[in-house]
Amino acid sequence: MKLAQRDAVLLEETMGLAEIRGRSLWADARGRFIRNKAAVAGLVVLVLVALFAFFGQVLAQYEPQHVDFSLMGANAWRGVPSLETGHYFGVDSDGRDLFARTVQGTRISLLVGIVGALVAVVVGTLYGAVAGYVGGRTDQVMMRTVDILMSIPFMFVLILMLVIFGRSIFMLFLGIGLISWLDMSRIARGQTLSIKNKEFVEAAVATGVRPFTIILRHVVPNLAGIVIVYSTLLVPQMIIFESFISYLGLGVQEPMTSLGALINQGASQMNNGTLWMMGFPLFFFLITLFAFFFVGDGLRDALDPKDR
Amino acid sequence: MYVYILRRLAVAIPTILLLVIFSFALMYSAPGGPFNSERPLPAQVMANIEAKYGLDRPVMVQMADYVWGVVTRFDFGPSFQYTDRTVNDVIAQGFPVTLTYGFWSAVVAVIVGVSLGIAAALRHNSWLDYLAVGVTIGAQALPNFVMAPILVLLFTLWLGWLPGGGWAGGIVVNACDPRDSLCWSAFGGAIRLDYVIMPVIALSTSYMASIARITRSSMLEVMNSNFIRTARAKGLPMRRVIWRHALKPTLLPVISYLGPAFVGMITGSVVVDIAFSTGGIGQFFVNSAFNRDYSVIMGITILVGMLTIGFNLLVDILYAWIDPKIRY
User: Fold this and answer.
1) Which residues contact B189 (CB under 8 A, 6 or more apart)?
2) Whether the predicted model's global pTM rises above the 0.95 cut
3) Domains of chain B listed by start with CATH number
4) What pLDDT score does B34 carry?
5) Fewest 10 Å CB contacts: which of A108, B64, B101, B106?
6) What is the interface pTM, i.e. ipTM, of the complex?
7) Is A34 part of any domain?
């Protein structure tokens, strides 16, 4: 009798415990991510950079396109970064406020990176999942196509396209969208191949769910972890890609700007002792890239624990 | 093996053809012809120019002619902007320069990267390992167009050790002045060492870092494998274990990375050419992009595409040859 009572108490305690909520996969991952100091620091930096890019305009004393003619030719000594004149980061070689221009450039660079990663996530994941799930000849043809596309030096083709159809931000987005999904589709396919043989997919097939619905409902959600990790690592690649083209002067066009274009303009003024023109855009470029790399690494450790 | 090579060739050759046709179609669909300018030319003049470049023929004939010329004679046609030179002239002028520092960059990236990776793996969790990992992460966020201006700032403007750009005769000079200790003979021409250093550093660093990272993780895995334990257990000295047993399997992933690295280096050479005014092929490429000199851009794109596809083919064959486990 006494024993049964104790059992009842125990049972109650266990029930109580069960209500404390089990730890989900995502909660585990969050815990691992938060313990990773570099990753958290990266995330904080990213939030700050994003705030700077999207709300920095409020702090700027000048419009990014405002040309201060009185500074032209004299910006080496009168356009220096200072709080008094309101040019916090100084002016560029045309007498435009570098703070406002850096805000604008960071915004464009972030946008390009995020759009490229989004295209990769949507197109690449679906493409890879379909190829992996359907398999057979379809898979062969689809992945061979990816192989062929990957063996083409896309930077050159994209520049050819930019020259022929005119340099515009739309073409840039299109070009980045065209290549960004290739890697992702390979990763998604590889992962799908192992998911395909799991019991829950078998169960879905047995209950007569259509293949495409299985891909969307059962395969794609299980790709989420790896897709998140690789899209985080893809964003800096896309930023580098865009900055590369803008550095050559073939990317975004004036009056728009991006970090690559600003670095290029700053580098061309290096001889004149106006190092801030290169320094500030370079600083934002580097911290953004580092932050993305650290966050991506942290996410990989958090979501893909077998990799450690 | 031969079947495998043939099968890869069967994919590579149509890819190149596709690239040529695609580039041609792109150029043909360009709004406005290559000779449209602000002021419209008289109809007769226009017709004469078009006849000279063969633009008055049907599209299919033009395309077939172009593809035939590229494939059989390696002839990329005339430049549309400069009447006195052909695309082949441009390539002949710029390509040796790009090849020179591209070659040295590849050598530096592989040798330094592999040594650093192996050293880091052998001294796992020592200061050397941490240094290697740190360098790897740092170089990842320092693409070549960031490296280039920083190098110029450091070595040219502040230290004044190296010339900031130009090629100083470079490949054009055929023989070295014997008194010139910085001059090297290479590729049947001569190069001045001090002009090559910064382009090579700018181009090779990020690939060196990637190779170091790949080598390190590969070496760590290999050193923990059973056959290495056996080799050590039978009393082989460490040096022999590394050279005879560990090196080959360690280098396999490095070899498969060489394909993408090559593509990246060829792309990166554009930035190096611009940043250091080397007069390499990338500089012509970007200048032509600004001049809308379609035939030059197209020619260089196709050339680079051919090189890339060819090199990838080579790497795949090499890989299949070295790794007996590969299925082909």
Assistant:
1) B96, B170, B171, B172, B173, B174
2) no
3) 93-293 (1.10.3720.10)
4) 61
5) B64
6) 0.76
7) no
